[in-house]
């Protein structure tokens, strides 16, 4: 009989996944840093969901990006509805840790958001990010429009060329459209590093530049 650890490097089959729950986890719908809502209609703005390892440091990277209106952390890409953090860490939900990035396209281009994503982690590592091992740390982009999907694919191809030239392997990032359901994480994870400035941040890129959205 397989133990929980067996699921850290492979996604569970639907019949293996935890059942989850119908009700969303409680959410204080105010961004701790800038006071914007975490959940809403976001009229006139764009939403992109990205997974790049532990979501604490990843969320901070994006809320610091000019033109980003709001961020939130959550779970996406798996089977279990409304999972808890402990359930996601078990490897039995299929979800990865993600950041919901809400941005104003009049202030920051999608290419800039994508470049920040690629340069902030190593997208060639499969089911881990640095010393963080498990399916919940896999790289992912969940797109909310065909245009986002096309741009994400193009950015992956451009970055792969740079990574290959630098000696890295193939990109393992999942690029998904339409985006899978996004389940908001527990309140204590939201803007975690603003609430806990000395908290863990495993964010680290390859040092390779992504050549999109740059003036030449």
TrEMBL record:
GO molecular function annotation: peptide-methionine (S)-S-oxide reductase activity
Residue ranges of every copy of the Peptide methionine sulphoxide reductase MsrA domain listed in the record: 50-201
Keyword Oxidoreductase: yes
Pfam family, one: PMSR
Known catalytic reactions: [thioredoxin]-disulfide + L-methionine + H2O = L-methionine (S)-S-oxide + [thioredoxin]-dithiol; L-methionyl-[protein] + [thioredoxin]-disulfide + H2O = L-methionyl-(S)-S-oxide-[protein] + [thioredoxin]-dithiol
Keywords from the named record: Oxidoreductase
Domain of life: Bacteria
Keyword Oxidoreductase (UniProt): yes
Active site: 54
Enzyme Commission number(s) of this protein: 1.8.4.11
Family of this protein: Belongs to the MsrA Met sulfoxide reductase family.
Its biological purpose: Has an important function as a repair enzyme for proteins that have been inactivated by oxidation. Catalyzes the reversible oxidation-reduction of methionine sulfoxide in proteins to methionine.
Protein name: Peptide methionine sulfoxide reductase MsrA
Organism, scientific name: Stenotrophomonas mori
């Amino acid at each position: 009989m397989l133990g929980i650890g067996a699921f850290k490097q492979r996604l569970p089959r639907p019949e293996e996944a935890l059942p989850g729950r119908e009700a969303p986890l409680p959410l204080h719908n105010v961004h701790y840093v800038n006071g914007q809502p975490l959940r809403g209609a976001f009229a006139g703005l764009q939403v992109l969901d990205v997974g790049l390892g532990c979501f604490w440091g990843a969320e901070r990277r994006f809320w610091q990006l000019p033109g980003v209106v709001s961020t939130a952390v959550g779970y996406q890409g798996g089977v279990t509805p409304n999972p808890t953090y402990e359930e996601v860490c078990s490897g039995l939900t299929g979800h990865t840790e993600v950041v919901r990035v809400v941005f104003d396209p009049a202030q920051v281009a999608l290419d800039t958001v994508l470049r920040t994503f690629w340069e902030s982690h190593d997208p060639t590592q499969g089911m881990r990010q640095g010393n963080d091992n498990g399916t919940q740390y896999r790289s992912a982009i969940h797109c909310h429009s065909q245009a986002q999907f096309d741009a994400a694919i193009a950015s992956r191809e451009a970055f792969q060329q740079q990574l290959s030239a630098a000696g890295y392997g193939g990109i393992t990032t999942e690029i998904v459209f339409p985006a899978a359901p996004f389940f908001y994480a527990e309140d204590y994870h939201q803007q975690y590093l603003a609430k806990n400035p000395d908290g863990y941040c495993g964010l680290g890129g390859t040092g390779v530049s992504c050549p999109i959205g740059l003036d030449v």
